[in-house]
Structure formats: C-alpha cells, structure tokens
Amino acid sequence: MLALGFLGLAAAPEVALAQAAEAQPPVELRARAEQPVLSVTLEEAIARAMKVNPQVAQAAGTVTTSAAAERSAFGAYLPSLSANANGSLASTQRLDPTTGAVLSGSNDTYSAGLAASWDVFTGGQRSATRRQTRAQSNAAEAQLIAQRSTAVLDVRRSFYEVLRAEGLEEVARSRIERAKQNAEAAERRLSVGSATRSDVLRSRLELTTARESLLSAQTQRTSAALALGRLIGVDGPVDAKPLEDLEPKALALTEDALVDEITASAPSVLAAEADLRASEAGVGAAKSEYLPTVRLSGGYDWFNQDLALTGGQTSWSVRLGLSYPIFDGFLREERVVRAKTQASVSQVGLADTRRAVRSSVGQSLSQLRLASERITFAQESVEVAKEDVKVQQERYRLGATTILELLTSQESLVQAEIDLVAARFDYQLARAELEALAGRPL
Questions:
Q1: Where are the domains of the chain?
Q2: Backbone angles phi, psi at 64, to 5 degrees
Q3: Which CATH number describes the domain made up of 2-6+52-86+107-438?
Q4: 272-296: pLDDT as tens digits
Q5: Could you give the C-alpha distances from 295 to 145, 242, 298, 320, in angstroms and in order?
Q6: What is the pTM of this model?
C-alpha cells in the first residue's frame, strides 16, 4: 500500500507535493465537529435506558395487565352485587292507556333494590381460567426479564463501540506522533545528504495516512456516541467513561454447568414454559363448556309512593338455576380444537427455544474463548512490534536501514494495537451476549 501510494506521488512534481503536504491542516483541528457533551458510566447508561426503552415499557405494561387479568380470574369465585334506585313523577290527572279514562291522584313512585348472584358451578372453567391467567402473568414477567436483558445488551454494545473508537483514536494519535518524528528525521537526513527526497515523501505520505485513520476513528466514535445517546434517551451524542478493567475474567461455573443452567433457567425458556402452561390451561377452559353451569341469585326490593323511608312495600327473591347448552353449532368443538392446536404449537416452541438457547450459549462461550486467546496473542504482538520499531528507528537514525523498512515495522505495530483494541471489546461483547442469555451477570 505504501509503495503504491509513493509511486502515485512520485508521478507529480516534488515541489507541488511538498506544498500540498505543508498546506494540509492538522486533522486534530478538523475532526469531530460534534463533540459529546454528556459522559456516563456503563451503570448509568443501563439505568437510563431502562426508563426510556419502548420494548421494556411495553413488557412492563403487559405484566401490569396480566396481573389485572389474574385478579379478575380470582374475582370470578366471588359473588356479584348490584344496587338500583328509581323514582318517577306523574301529574295529578293522567290518561290511563288501557281504559282511556282520565284519572286523578298522585302517581309518584320510588323504589330501590339489591341483587346478588353467585356461580355455584361452572364446570371447572373458573379454575382453568385462573391457571391460565397465572401462567400468562409468569410468562409476562419472564418476557420482561428477557426484554431488559436485551436492552442491557444493546446499551453495552453501543457503550463498547464508543470505547472501541476511543481506543482506535489513541492508536491513530500514536501513529501520527511517530509519523511526525519520521518526517523530522527524514528532513534532517536530507539536509545533511544522508537521505533522499524519497524518504521525505514516504514519511509525509505516512503522516497523511495516520491523520486519515484518526479522522475515521473520530467519525466512528461520533456515530457510536449518537447511537448511545438515543438508547439512553438523550438528544445528541453521549460519551462513555472508561472501564476500570478490560481484562478477561474467569466464569464462576464450568462451561458444561453454565450451559445446563442457562438452558434450564434462561428468561426466554421460562417464558416459553409459561406459554405452554397457559395453552394447556386454555384446553381445560374450552372443555369446561361441555358441562352445565349452576347459578344462585337473589334480590331485595323496596317500593313506595311517597318520598319517605318509612312505609312502603318490600319483596325478596331467591333463585337457583341450571344452564346447559345442548347444541351451539359446533362452537365448543372449534374452541377445543383451537386450544389443543395452540398447546401443541407451544410445546414445539418450548423445545425449539431450549435448543436455540443451548446453541447460542455454546456459540457465545466459543467466542469468549477465542477473544480471550486473541487478547493474549495481541498483547504479545504489541510488545514484539514495539521492540522492533525501536530497533528500526535506531537503525534508520544511524543510516543502517531505509525508511521503507521503518514504516513497515511501524505499520505492524499499528495493526497489532488495532487487533488488541478489537480483541478486548470482542471479549466484552461476547460476555455481554452470554449474560443476556442468562438474564443475569456471570
């Protein structure tokens, strides 16, 4: 890449190249037109996101409505009670609609009453409905945990992307400093006749490339900061405060034990299990319609023609009724078939969810191991590349090597530093994905 760039530069007049390089404004003065004004820790970002995430809010709303449905299902065991009151006024002379005669006298009426009813037997429908609503509440709570885990994963990804871009900025700044030193050394050697104009042009090309990489990293950081701001409810970019430790940490459980635990207790699995229980309870509720229902009801009424609490007439009633639909056009059969089909689909979905979780956990653990090994390799590569750069810089200062060999050595150091930054945050992302599957920190 350096050689091709140099050939392109060599084709133009050297004076024009030198003037263009000197006229180029430093990238530090031009980059990052939009600076983040807020800086948050990872914990602060997660706390903010939980308050503004639409999916979390929707899942929390489902938990609330499911709790209300469960309370309503319990209320079906209790009797219902209602009260009524009526009053009517009529003129002293009025027409009797039956006889057509004109009647005289007051026809004011006042009445009040209480009515109560209680389902003595519903064929098991109340108990099936209560089991169904309880399972739906459990599913809603599991979905809320899963949605929170997903939201936390999104925040951590965005947070790490900001820090990754910051790390790439530091690499680019170090590269710029080395490129400036190379350019100064090449100018000095050219002035004493121990270097060629080619060395100066190569060093300037490297400086331009380093500035371009810094601009790219800064643009990437701004984009990541804007994405982080959206996730935590801020209109604009948000910066990420550095983490104290980015080194790999051992898991509390062995990989096999971790796979078994997450497969059994992952929020998505718990939600699928609750959905299955709700579907099975739905089958019982549908079958209960084949049984009769028994209802006990009663009432107490008061009637008076004067606006007074004394006097008047009272009456009461008690009723015990049985209802059984003999034929309803196969609607009961349809509801049973639908409920059984839903239960079958939920059973298949639960099995698939368990397989998916087990597969995802295995993949995350593999990525975790790979990233951990890459961190070790990248750290070793950075140390080796730094030593090689020191040797090449000294050799170039003594005139024992060319600028091309020095730039090649520095390019290896830059790539090693980039690989180290990538490996560290790849590890953090892999661990975050594993914790999102588990629904808890590991």
A1: 2-6+52-86+107-438
A2: -65, -45
A3: 1.20.1600.10
A4: 888 898 888 888 888 888 888 889 9
A5: 41, 68, 10, 6
A6: 0.77
